[in-house]
Structures are given as structure tokens and as C-alpha cells.
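Hello Y.,

Per our agreement to keep a running log of every chain we model this quarter, I'm adding this entry. I've kept the format consistent with earlier entries: sequence first, then predicted structure.
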Amino acid sequence: MKKLSMIAVSVICVFVIFIMGIGYSVSAPGYTGKPSKHFDGKKFNNKEGYDSKGFLDLIKWASTRNAGNWTEKTEEDITYGEKPAERVSDSVHVITYVNHSTFLIQTNGLNIITDPVYSDRVSPFSFAGPKRMRPPGIKFEDLPKINFVLLSHNHYDHLDVNTLKRIQESSDPVFITPLGVDLYLNKKGIYKTVSLDWWEAHTINKSVSVSAVEAQHFSSRGMFDRDKTLWAGYIIESLSGNIYFAGDTGYNNFFNKIGQDYGPIKTALIPIGAYIPRWFMGPIHVDPKQALQIHKDVGAELSIGMHYGTFPLADDGEMDPINDLEKAMNDENFVLMKEGEKIIRK
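Predicted structure for the entry above:
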């Protein structure tokens, strides 16, 4: 009996070491730099009022989950959107919804893509983790040549290495990231990078600039890199009007500052999904009602919902974000797009 117990302990130890090894191997390198209000020299942090959830909270959620319903759709079930134009003029911007948080933004002769994800799973593994429930609305081969890629943070449903490498091979763009995320891209052979702190700008040309703005979230790809790189939203300032891409975020009071500093905002891209249960998801993901409040806070002329309907990341079902947004809507100019659909903003 004692021998069997020793064997069991040995097996458990080997398993724990194996898991920790995987956790270490997929962890991203951390940012190093001078401390700031949101960087203590080792880790980044959010504003006051942020309720950080740890490993024990994750276990609690995983053991009490009550996931909503999803229906998987394949290529046979959808119609892909039309092939986007190669370039768009200065007078308008065209926004095409691909999936999840992936938008093709075309303006001033530039093609910009946000958090591009074309993989079937958003996970360190190809055989496990959140699975794609809908195909991307635009075929990868139909994308025009991409000039800039905006990455909001390093989570798998926003930073998809396989997709980034495909874009690098087909377009050789510049990858704009929050602080430290560029180090992970460099590690993966992607060197054409620009990293930004919150409220820092990168000038693309005389007509267009990109600024990183505050978001409330966290970062990690493995077990040993929690909050060692920054997360952010972005403002694209252009002749056709300013565009706000919120990235992944919980709610706080900095959205008013975004509206004040970068207004008027013509178009905002705001997340509405992965928000249930609120006790766990609330600090990092806004719900539809909060998304509408962000729309008001930043003073957007038009807002478009994102971060829903593609990957089951929380307990809300496929239709919950849509239904809850509809219930909370009054007269806000806030719309949802189908994958592959485009909006022309004049």
C-alpha cells in the first residue's frame, strides 16, 4: 500500500512538473523599463477600483460554470463577404468586420487590421481550448495587402501567432503593440514592430497617426508572465475621422478622457461579449450596457460591437450579447455587423 502511495505521489509530481513546464514554455518575455503610474518595474497594473481575479477565482469559476448555448457554423453554412478593395481614398474610411475583434480598417490609402485571428482555436494547443464557432467573414486570401497590424494585448483570442506570420509573409506590415508585446513577436521572428505606452502616439504619415490609449484588462500567455506586458486600445486619427478600437477592457472612468483627448470620434469599435458571470468577468470584460456607456463616454458618432459570437470564452451563450444589447439600447447609434459586412463612413 505504501509503495502504491509513493507511486501515486510520483505520478502527481511528474504531472505538475509537466504542466509547469508547458506553462513556462508558452509564457511571453516581460517588458523592462522605468516604473510609471501603471508599471511598478516588473508588472503593469490598472486604475484604482480594479478587482484582480487570481488562480483560485479561476478554479471557482471553472468548477461552477453554467455555459450558455452555442451552435457551430461551418463554411457550408455561411456566405463570405465580398473581396475588399485594394485601397480606399482619403475622404472616407471603410470598416469590414472579419470576426471577434478583427476588423479591416481602410482609410487614406492604408489598410489596417485589428487583432487578426484566423485560427480554429484560441489556445496554446491546436486540439484544445476555445473553438471557433463561425468562420471568418472574409477569406484570408481576399484580404488586401496589410500596411499595419494593431494588437491590443497578448491573449490568444487577440494575438494569434499563426495568423500574424501569414500576414507577415503576404504583406510585410508594421505591427503596433502595447509595451512588451513586441518582444514576444520578435521571439517568433516578427521584427517590424512599434511598441507604445498608454497615451503615446506613432505617426504613420502626414494624414494618419495611431495612439495607444488606456484599457482595463490583464496580460499573459502562460503561467509565469501575468501582467508583464501592457494591454491597450487605440485611436486612429485620420482625415476621414478618428476611429477608436477599444481592444479588450472592463469599465472605468478613463473613457471620458479618451473622448476629451481624441474627440470627435467618428467610429468606435467596442466589445460586448464574454461578460458572464459578472463576479469573475466584470473587471476585464464590459457587458452590453457598459459598452453603450463607453459609446457615450467617448462621444462616438457611431459604435460597432465586437468580441462576441465567434469563440465561447465565458458563460454567455451565442445570443446573450445580442439580446442584452437590444434590451439596453435606447436611441444610441450602436450597431452590430455580420461577419464579412462593411460600413462606409463618409
